[in-house]
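Worked problem 6 (solution included).
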Amino acid sequence: MTTDAEFEAAIAGLQDWVGRERIVEDEIGLSSARRIAGMLDVDPASLKQGDTLPPHWFTMFFPDIAKQSDIGPDGHPNKGVFLPPIPLPRRMGAGRRVTINEPLRIGTPAIKRAIVAQVLPKIGRTGRMAILTMRHVIECEGRTVAVDEFDAMYREAPPPGQPSPQTPPNPAPTNGVYADQVLLSSPLVFRYSSVTWNAHRIHYDADYARSEEGYPATVQNGGLTIQLLLDAALKRAPGRLAGFTARLARPLWVGDTVTLCGAAPADGKMACWAADKDGNLCATMELTLG
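Solution. The predicted structure is:
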């Protein structure tokens, strides 16, 4: 086992990854947009070539497509294929900061510039961690459509037979002006993973999630939680979505019901949050409205 100093030195050795950039192209195809619509319970036939998409849908295009031989045992691409080879085995989304200038349009090709923005070590209550920040710059016809800074947390594996450590429960606010309940069914989470080309096994393989990563059940995809929060808020929000910040605080489990809540918009902002079936806070979000 390495010492804390050796761990920090290993992370420091990855700093030459910071600033690296790769380009992911996407034709923003009609069939892809219709799959996303169907997954979100929107009539797929309502979308036509040339239509403007909801502004936050850009997060479900531009997947990293690895060869099957480059996929690791957890379903993610092997370390070093797309992302820095951080020497910790467990990876989960933590939060994001997004600005949106304009929406994508079906049939108009666009690109994602995926830039390694930061790799930081952290030693906390639950052990060694590393935070990887990726900056995704979405461009279409020479214009910046959106900028998405996404944080992923890498952690140590729990000892065999031990549960994965979790953030202590924290009650969610109860003063929301709405509360939408959504069942996180296996088909919904599977379809989201499919349209985003995410093969992380904790989202669909219960035996793997329990025996290898120490979770009590298959884990809800954090990107889907953010998507559902946005969809619920935008039903009530005035004006256009100019950006948002989001933080994932506690896992949700596939098969449970999530409650999506929010406060009334004020001064161009709107606070939202998600609660699990026991009323614990699982995610927070603030929308910026233009």
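Discussion: DSSP finds five helices and ten strands in the chain.
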